[in-house]
Structure formats: structure tokens, C-alpha cells
Amino acid sequence: MKLSRALVTAFLALSAMSLGAQQEQPQPPDKYVSVEEYEKLKAEHEAMKQELDALKKVVSQIANKTVPTVPAEPAPATTPSDGKQVVGTTSPPAEIDELREELAKVKETAQSTVPGTTKFLLTGFAFGGFEKRNGEPSTFSAGLTPILLWELSDKLFFEGELELGLNDTETEVELGYAQLTYLLNDYITVGVGKFLTPFGQFPERLHPAWINKLPDFPLAFDEDEGLVPFSQVGAKVGGVIPIGPTKLLYDLYASNGPRLNTDDSDRAGSLEFDNFTDIDNNKAVGGRIGFMPIPGLEVGYSIQGSRVKAPDTSGSDADVLLQGVDGSYNHDFEWLKGGIDLRVEWVWSRVSRLTYDPTGTLGFGPVTFSNRRNGGYVQLAYRPYKLKVPIIEKLEAVGRYDRIDAPSLAPGAFDEERWSLGLNYWLGQSTVIKAAYEFGHRDSSENGHENVDSFLLQAAMGF
Amino acid sequence: MNKIALKRLTKAGVAIFATSALLGIILQIPRATADDKSADAASTTTKTSSAAQPSEKIAKDGSQLWSENCARCHNMRSPSSYSDAEWEVVMHHMRVRARLTPEEHKAILEFLKSAN
Q: CA-nearest residue of chain B to A66?
């Protein structure tokens, strides 16, 4: 009994003593931190260091003109469980504050470069050239064509082209095209403005100096004396319809229409496409349908009809019908160690039969003729880019046959035929130096048979 | 079996073995060439399989569409010519000009962004 009492008393005394000792344990000085706190700070420091490295990489990419994605912030550092009472904390080291400031600046810089919802791009092409045509003085030439592209939304898009060129003693500025397009759905795009005519392939896709494989345009597609309007003011609808592995391309448009030249002794009977207002209250309607049966092959048919006023002729107006066919094929052949690009386009122009200058007062009439003209080109290009021989792999050989035929009785009209041989050297994917020699002859009732051989050089760059 | 017969049998065996090896080598060549052509036509990625990563499959389809559609008119510019945002503008312009389908537009754009 006495022993048990003694034992209980001793137990109680010992418990009291241990509790008292715990309470009386002195606090560690403020200059020490717990192991958990240290581990927590260390983890935070490591995380910030990683984040800073990632953002420094972002900044260097920005400096190299690429737009990186803003890096995600790393997961917050896990902290050890605070099983032990935190006796006291110290302020984060000065290095961590410095890292935090630097991180904030880098984030701000990265955010400022992220583009907005509308996107703008200035692109285009430029060229410089030299030409020597038989019977004419040799001349240098140059031109700059900036293209402005503005994506207002994923459906709404604006594109415009300015053509800056030199003519005699003046600098010419022309509006190549300026159109607003809207993607109505996957198959229909509507557009309005001044657009490149979807007649054949050359006007809309092949005319830029760095894309056209020869220094000049085919005769039928000449901007001034060609058979086809290069660009028109109006509205259009077009798109693509996939049919299994093939595609059907279509375009329909209405425009202000051409003007019939009836009073110029050098050009009476020819169509003028440089009027940008409807001068005779008759619109032109046209379109193109193209088919791509296999990759690399495209065939198309184009048509445009209009009615034009015909003053100073035997009639009051005339019907105009333009028709064209086009085809292109490009393919790489292993056995050729390169690729070929084959193109053919032909245009037929028909204007109603009229008598021009019926009274003779204009000095060249009366003259009556069936106003049918036609012209086109066939072009083949070969580039041995798989040959892997320096210089040779960057060369491209081009051959083109083109011609234009006009009614022999039409004032100032001529037939012209050319064989062009060209050699291009591609400094880059969109930078080329072209050299070409054209063997040509022109036949007209005024000048008979003329030699129009030409030597052409051109350096062109797309940017 | 006597020694002469064994010698003849050995010679025949060696001949059969050599002919088989030669035929095996010859028959391997067309198969390798076809693989090279398909790799050139598409990209440097291997043929898609059930184990192919989604980004590899997109890159192959986009690169093939890129070479088929862009080469219709002009040389193909390097993907590094433009940034991602610039390619979005360029490809919208090309979708209108070249009459690309929405699938072609998306695949080519994704390829260009992944390759720049």
C-alpha cells in the first residue's frame, strides 16, 4: 500500500516536473530559423530561379525577333509541414527580391509584344531591270509594289497593292488592287473593291516580279495592250468546293466593264480596261471555273461578257465576249533531279462587227472588220534543285512561246510572235536574277514585218 | 557419305547460300527507294502509325499540303520567314488567293507555325 502510494506520488511529481520543464524551455534567439522554414525558403528560391531562366530565354527570343509564348509560371513550391512551432522568421534574402523585380520586368516586356486581335503585315515585291529592244534605246527600269495585308478577324480581310513605277520623267503611282473579302463559309468568299481579274491564272497569281519566271509579261496579258483586264472595280464571289480528292475552284464577278476605243487611229477597235468608272452604264459579268484532278495539275475556263458603247461607229453599242482556257502542271521528278513547271493560257476576244469612222472625219475610216483577237503563251521551266551541285541547283531554265493576233484591218493593230529563252538564278526562295533573250517578230499593215528581238535582265525580290 | 559427295554438297550449299543472299540484297533495293520517295514527298518524319505523336501526323500532312499548294504558283518560302502571327495573315491572304479549303488552310498554317 505504502509502496503503491509512493509510486503514484513519484509518477505525479515526475509528470509535473516534465511539464514545467517544457514551459520553462528558453526561446531560441531570432537569428535562427527552423529546418522547415529553411527548406521552404530554399524551395521558393529554386522555383524563382527556374522561372527567371525561362523568362530570360523568352527575352532573348524576343530580341531575335521571334514571338515566344509567355511561359507558364511554375507550380508553387511545396512547403514542409510545420509540425514544429515556428519560433521566429527572417525576411527573404535580398537576392530573391531582386529576382522578383527582374521577373516582373521580363513579364511586362513579353506581354507588350503579344499581338492584338487584328493583325497587319506589310509585304510586296520590288525589281530593277534593263532591257534592249530592237529598234528602241536601251533602258533601265525599277519598280516597288508594297502589299498591305490586314486581318481584321478570322473572316474579314483587307488586301491592297500599290504599284510605284517610272514612266519617262514621272513616277507613277497606281492602285493595283484594294479589296475587302469576307469568308461567308467554308466554300464561299465574297469580295468588293478593285480586284485582280480571275480570268486565267496570270493576272491573279503569276504577275509579281518574283513569281513571273521571265522579266516581262506574255503579250496577251500585257497590262496596257493585252486582251484581258488585269484588274477591275466591282464585286465578286468565289471559293473552292472539294470533291473527294479533287477540287473545284470557281469565281463570279460583276465589274464596271471595259471601254471600246473608237476614235484613236492607232487603237480603234481595241478594248480599254483602264476606266475605273462605268462610262456606258453597262456592267461586265464574268467568271472562271477551275478543276484540280490531281495535286499539281489545274485546268480552267474563263469567260467575260459586256456591252459597250460604240460612238463614232456604224452602231450605237457593241457586244464583247472574252473567253480563255488555262492549264498548269508542276511536279518534281526524281529522275530529273528537280521540278518542272508547265503553263499554258490562251484568250479569245470578240467584239461585234462595226464600221469605225464611217464618215471619215477622224482620218482613218471608214473601216469595217470582224474584231476578233486572240493570244496566249506556253511556258516551261525546269529547276534542278535536287542536283545538290553548288550554283547549278539554284539555276532555272525557262522557255516561253507567246503570241497575239489582231484583225489585219484594225487601225494600228499587229500580230506579234516571240520565242523567249531565259535563265534564272535564285539567290533565295523569293529573290531571283533573270536573264532572257526574246526572238520575236511583228507584222502590221503599217510597218510590215519587223524584228522585235530583245535582251532583258531583271533582279526581283519578294518580301 | 564419301568425301567427294560431301565436297559437292558443300559447294552446292555455298552456291545456294550466296544466290539467296544476292537475291535478298537485290530485292531490298526497290523497297528502300520507294521508302525514300515517300519520305521526300512528305517530310523527314516516318510514316504514321498508331504510335505516332499527333504533332508528327499534323507536320506530315501540313508539309505535304504546303508543297502541293504553294508550289502551284511560286517557290515555297521557308517557315522561318515569318513569325506565327505573320503567318496567320499570310495564310489568310493565300486562302483567298489560292482558293484553299479550310482543312488545307488549317493544316498548312499549323505546319508553318510548328516549323518556324
A: B83
